[in-house]
C-alpha cells in the first residue's frame, strides 16, 4: 500500500471514528431532552461507526501500515430542534460518501485492487446511510406537533430499521 493511500485510509478511519463521536454527542443531546427513541437511534449509530473505524484500522494493520488515531475536535451540539439535528446528520453522511468516493478514486489511480475491493462495501454502505438519514429528515419534518413528535420518538428505530 503506497504511503499516500495509507495516509488517506488513516484519514478515513479517523473520519469514521469522528462520526462515531458525533453520533454519541447527539445521543446525549437527545437524552438530555428525553427523546428516548432518538437516544437509542444515535447510540446504535455511534456503535456502528466505531465498527467501521475498527475495520479501517484493522485493514491498515493487515496491510502492514502503522495506525494513527486522532485528533478529534470537541463536540458540544447546540441544535435547537430535531429537524436541525436530522439535517446535520444527513449532510454529514453525504460528506462521508464523497470522502469514500475520493478514496476509491485514489485506490484506482494507485492500481491498488485490494483496497478497491475493501472499499466497495463502504460505497454500498453509504447508499444505505444516505437513505435512512434522508428518511429521518422527511419523518421529522412531517412531525410538526408535539403529539406527532412524541410518537415518532417512540417508534423511530423500528420505523427506520424494522424490528431487531
Ligand atoms: Fe461509517
Ligand atoms: Fe454512517
Question: How is this structure best summarized?
Answer:
The protein has about 160 residues and is an all-alpha fold. It has helices at about 5-30, 35-60, 80-110, 115-140, 145-160.
Per-chain topology:
Layout: H1 3-32, H2 36-62, H3 82-109, H4 113-142, H5 146-161
Helix pairs in contact: 1-2, 1-3, 2-5, 3-4, 4-5
Bound molecules: fe (ii) ion (FE2) (2 copies).
Structural descriptors:
single chain; 164 residues; mainly alpha; 80% helix; elongated; binds fe (ii) ion
Give an account of the 3D structure:
The protein has 164 residues and is mostly helical. The protein is 80% helix and 0% strand. It is built from five helices and no strands. The structure holds fe (ii) ion (2 copies).
Instruction: Characterize the overall form.
Output: elongated
- Low-confidence region ranges: none
The description of the largest β-sheet is: none
| Order of secondary-structure elements | HHHHH
Task: Specify the number of helices.
Answer: 5
Ends: how far apart?
Answer: 38 Å
Fraction of residues in helix: over 70%
By helix and strand content, what is the structural category?
Answer: mainly alpha
Radius of gyration: 17 Å
Give the strand content. under 5%
Bound compounds, each kind once, are: fe (ii) ion
* Mean pLDDT across all amino acids: 97
Number of strands: 0
